[in-house]
Amino acid sequence: MPAPHDSIITRANSLLAGGRVHDAIALATRAAQAGDPDALMQVAIWRLSGHPLPRDLPEARRLLRRAAEAGHADAALTEVALVGNGSGGAPDWPGALALLRSAARRDATAAAHLALVEAMALRPDGAPSTLLSGDRLSTSPDVTRFRQFCTPAECAHVASAAQHLLAPSAVVDPRTGRLTEHPVRTSDGGVFPPTREDLVLQAINRRIALATNTAVAQGEGLVVLRYRPGQQFRLHHDCLPGVRNQRIRTVLIYLTDEFTGGETQFPAASLTVRPQVGDAVLFTNTLSDGRPDPSATHAGLPVSTGTKWLATRWIRANPVDPWNAAQTAS
């Protein structure tokens, strides 16, 4: 007796795991061509990841559209993200917002995203409608604090959306090529890929761009870090060694404040910043000639009690392609 139709994707992935790549692709593609929403979503994911099919962002967008039209909620949210951030086409905030409104009529998650976006004061392109002002805390390094940069509801959304992305901080051991414990950062962390950049996150990224006087495309993917008692980010500098496209600025957004310890410290300025929920700290990592500014060395002090949640966005000197890991690393 043949397997149920809803197990097509399970069967395709089983074939893929067993090395039968051609059979897996053929099975999922036939089902997608017949309009199966799960198969459409699966083939779109393959087109986005570049495995086992070559990466093709416009084709992924086309497949997601068909899956969303067939009622696939995750496909609809992924399409909203890609239309908004310009993956597979030009960034289109109005188009993404229209898609979100359509999805919100059928899906509670989309409706929650829409409610948060509609509570923001935004221009038609998704950028903030008002200019942000901050308090200069230091000139060497250049540190500015923005009070209530994000609302508590926005902070809760960012932390919640990152839950499934978190993993212990690690680096690649140059001797073995294997991931090993991060020697400086002892938190759990995760970065939002373009497919997970919902419109709430994209609006926050546009807010960061305005605060830093940079283009949205200059920002790396938003990183969320979770620090439990005893965890910390030891003294470090955010500039990267030997790169052509340097991290010129850093923005930290404190997503929670129900903890003790966990302050951000800049030893060169004798400055210690106590986190408050929704506040953001912006600092410049480079000198006027582009070289790293030694005074921008900083630390996230150990958390004593409670759990600290922090969002970080590193801003590069030039735009970065989030789909090109090699470019981001350089």
TrEMBL record:
Classification via SMART domains = P4Hc
The record's section on InterPro entries has: Oxoglu/Fe-dep_dioxygenase_dom, P4HA-like, Pro_4_hyd_alph, Pro_4_hyd_alph_FE2OG_OXY, TPR-like_helical_dom_sf
Q: Which GO terms describe its molecular function?
A: iron ion binding; L-ascorbic acid binding; procollagen-proline 4-dioxygenase activity
Q: Where is the Fe2OG dioxygenase domain?
A: 218-317
Tagged with keyword Hydrolase: no
Q: Which PANTHER family match?
A: PROLYL 4-HYDROXYLASE ALPHA SUBUNIT, TRANSMEMBRANE PROLYL 4-HYDROXYLASE
- Transmembrane regions listed in the UniProt entry: none
For this protein, the Enzyme Commission number is 1.14.11.2
The source's domain of life comes to Bacteria
Q: What name does the UniProt record give this protein?
A: Prolyl 4-hydroxylase
Its cofactor is: L-ascorbate
Q: Which Pfam families match?
A: 2OG-FeII_Oxy_3 (PF13640)
Q: Which UniProt keywords apply?
A: Dioxygenase, Endoplasmic reticulum, Glycoprotein, Iron, Metal-binding, Oxidoreductase, Vitamin C
